[in-house]
Amino acid sequence: xxxxxxxxxxxxxxxxxxxxxxxxxxxxxxxxxxxxxxxxxxxxxxxxxxxxxxxxxxxxxxxxxxxxxxxxxxxxxxxxxxxxxxxxxxxxxxxxxxxxxxxxxxxxxxxxxxxxxxxxxxxxxxxxxxxxxxxxxxxxxxxxxxxxxxxxxxxxxxxxxxxxxxxxxxxxxxxxxxxxxxxxxxxxxxxxxxxxxxxxxxxxxxxxxxxxxxxxxxxxxxxxxxxxxxxxxxxxxxxxxxxxxxxxxxxxxxxxxxxxxxxxxxxxxxxxxxxxxxxxxxxxxxxxxxxxxxxxxxxxxxxxxxxxxxxxxxxxxxxxxxxxxxxxxxxxxxxxxxxxxxxxxxxxxxxxxxxxxxxxxxxxxxxxxxxxxxxxxxxxxxxxxxxxxxxxxxxxxxxxxxxxxxxxxxxxxxxxxxxxxxxxxxxxxxxxxxxxxxxxxxxxxxxxxxxxxxxxxxxxxxxxxxxxxxxxxxxxxxxxxxxxxxxxxxxxxxxxxxxxxxxxxxx
Length: 507
Ligand code: ADP
Hints:
- The chain contains 18 helices and 22 strands.
- The chain has helices at residues 11-23, 40-44, 63-73, 89-97, 107-114, 116-125, 141-151, 174-192, 249-265, 297-304, 308-316, 396-409, 419-425, 429-432, 440-447, 449-452, 459-477, 491-497; strands spanning 4-7, 27-32, 47-50, 77-79, 101-102, 155-159, 169-171, 197-201, 207-215, 221-233, 236-242, 270-278, 284-290, 333-340, 342-343, 349-350, 353-354, 357-359, 366-370, 377-378, 385-393, 411-413.
- The strands form 6 sheets. It has an 8-stranded antiparallel sheet, with helices on both faces. The protein has a 5-stranded parallel sheet with strand order 3-2-1-4-5, sandwiched between helices.
- Helix 4 (89-97) packs antiparallel against helix 5, helix 5 (107-114) packs across helix 6 (116-125) and helix 7 (141-151) packs across helix 8 (174-192).
- The longest helix has 19 residues, at 174-192.
- The radius of gyration is 22 Å and the shape is globular.
- Bound molecules: adenosine-5'-diphosphate.
- Adenosine-5'-diphosphate binds at residues 131, 156, 162-165, 168, 200-203, 206, 208, 232, 235, 275, 277, 287-288, 438.
């Protein structure tokens, strides 16, 4: 087993990986940018090394700097987390060249599945149904017009190199195609340095259901059930749960076996996720593979009683999968909320700044994966996710009740968060019935605008928390400190959050 692992990430996922290392008796080495000097992952690491300026390109996206630290610190392996370099085959290659084990798939498997069109080919060869559309990148606008005629409207233009909804445009009718083609192409070029696009039929109200797969180095591949990720805002996940309220044993097996075929066809090992859209008739269509640990992995951990990060580390160290497909059983129900520093009253723009007071909920069935602490200033340079709140219950109703109870106990003062949104969604009768699809939340938001903006905590609570925070600051410094003004010039906001999937104004 490895003695030391470098964690090439930040925030809650760096903390999550670090905890798995410590439980396994492995030393965890952190890297951090200038904005993260005082962050939780640095505090908890056994060693921590600065790798440059706040801007990701200068720090968390620098393969050279990260490999340099891994070498200097004598790390036997590197865990990439999710985001940043996690799906970059160049990092996996650089690790191999430096004699460091990359905790993830081979660079070749990443390449086979990394581009969405390449993955569609692999799926087709493995006999896995894909969303109808073009299998290859589209050469030019004229070719796009021809393809559109064949596929029909509404359709979706997608970036070959896509991720995070960038370079994606819904096209409702022919007249919109030209503009959408231009916008999606330039957005993709900006985001990925690759402006190539392809086209899919736009399914109007599907569910997003994904399968967790795991492979070892000896040809064993298993699936660990599904996650329902249909609760999305502008096509980005917000609440996830396992199992899905609509997946029965037969569909689970069909989707699971399809995912295993796909993983085998790509020569896949370690953790991966096959994403699907599922229509009202229970027909499923392959979307893409994420060749890394997912943000929402805790809901699978909760219902399988497995620790996916430890499993990743064991498999990377050459161990065999310690169980077979028939040993995988699901128990109870789990649900996760992604808690963001963002302002529901201002189109969910990021709301970085100082956390004056933080109270995390506890109690039966509750897990917090957070990357922040009270007094920490959430930087404006990165994804503003503060952490994830996960609830487990014996059944869906208990999981929801625990999550709702924990949300009521949750308290973040000093910055805006989306907690109030979750408190309201979890009381909605359609949500409670599991009657959701990928556009459900956008429609809900459009019809509940005034409700979402309502007070997330009572004013009394906020005033009390402010008083406590000011008093603490005063006793620490001998003078009262004014609450920091949240930064509103977040680069992350400008580059990512404003990029909306469909550029129509919200009603
Ligand atoms: P990205 O990798 O950019 O996040 P995905 O392909 O994973 O893009 O899709 C993200 C979300 O976009 C899906 O969960 C779904 O809500 C929506 N989506 C993607 N493709 C389609 C499609 N063909 N029809 C309808 N919705 C889609």
